[in-house]
Amino acid sequence: MREVTEFNDFELIDADNGERLERWGDIILIRPDPQVIWSLGKSDSRWNSANAVYHRSNSGGGYWEKLKPVPDVWSVDYKGLTFRLKPMGFKHTGLFPEQAVNWSLAMELITKANREINVLNLFSYTGAATLACLKAGAKVTHVDASKGMVQWAKENAAASNLADRPVRWLVDDCLKFVNREIRRGNKYDAIIMDPPSYGRGPNGEVWKLEQNIGELLSKTGQLLSDKPLFFFLNSYTGGLSPTLLNFMVRQYIAPKGKGTITTDEIGLRVSCKDVVLPCGNTTIWTE
């Protein structure tokens, strides 16, 4: 497992009985997590002094209970990148901190390539991976189905002093976009894909990971340039095993069997307990 380090503005303080106690800058949050299946006791006093806690509803979704003042928006930094946060529906804050290991890897690979790298970031959410690639000197095409998320990503880029870097911000259905790029003959040296388990496109298109991932991978592989650098596929869905995803990337993405493919878990270390909390997995192809 690869675990996040050097993210000083984020800490998974404790995790117990289905909940996570987290520090985001100076803000302490309690959020549910189904991976926290143990009940060993809540051993940090900050459980009793959190700024907000997210409560799940029996009918689906949930709500934030603010116990102390929480800014409408606040920021955290990671290696020169600035991310604007806010409590959202379905327990989110606008950032998945476990992905920091992949942001760092993307920056390292782009920097070491020592050539112009054109990156496609699909299902790009609030743009953390986009910002990492821009900071390393790449050109990025950022695609997400949500207009609000693309706007949020632009705000993160501005906060990180990257607004003037070469990036296309696109609100689009990812599969439709990929099909159009194939027809246009466009190519990319690196592709990052962070698909949700379920979602809808800007015109109501339904996305189901198990049903659509094979088609998307087969089409996306056609967009790799003659000198591809890397391909990242993130997955949070327990129904798709790492072995299966590794096989699919090998079949659809790895150009003529070249390069190296790895699949591993990514996670966050719990400060108060000797455990790294699993937070999904990433399949990576590199040249």
List keywords for this structure.
287 residues; alpha/beta; eight-stranded mixed sheet; five-stranded mixed sheet; 17 strands; globular
Largest sheet: spatial strand order: 1-16-17-15-12-9-10-11
Average pLDDT confidence is: 93
Bin the helical content: 10-25%
H/E element order: EEEEEEEEHEHEHEHEEEHEHEE
Largest sheet: 8 strands, mixed
Note the beta-strand portion.
Answer: 25-35%
* N-to-C CA distance: 21 Å
Unreliable stretches covering 5 or more consecutive residues = none
Provide the gyration radius in Å.
Answer: 19 Å
Shape: globular
| Structural class assignment | alpha/beta
Q: Give the total of beta strands.
A: 17
What's the oligomerization state?
single chain
How many distinct helices? 6
Present the secondary structure layout.
Elements: E1 2-3, E2 10-16, E3 19-24, E4 27-32, E5 52-56, E6 62-66, E7 74-78, E8 81-85, H1 100-113, E9 118-122, H2 128-135, E10 139-144, H3 147-159, E11 167-171, H4 174-184, E12 190-193, E13 198-200, E14 206-208, H5 209-220, E15 230-235, H6 242-252, E16 260-270, E17 275-286
Parallel strand pairs: 1-16, 4-5, 9-10, 9-12, 10-11, 12-15
Antiparallel strand pairs: 2-3, 3-4, 5-6, 7-8, 13-14, 15-17, 16-17
Helix pairs in contact: 1-2, 4-5, 5-6
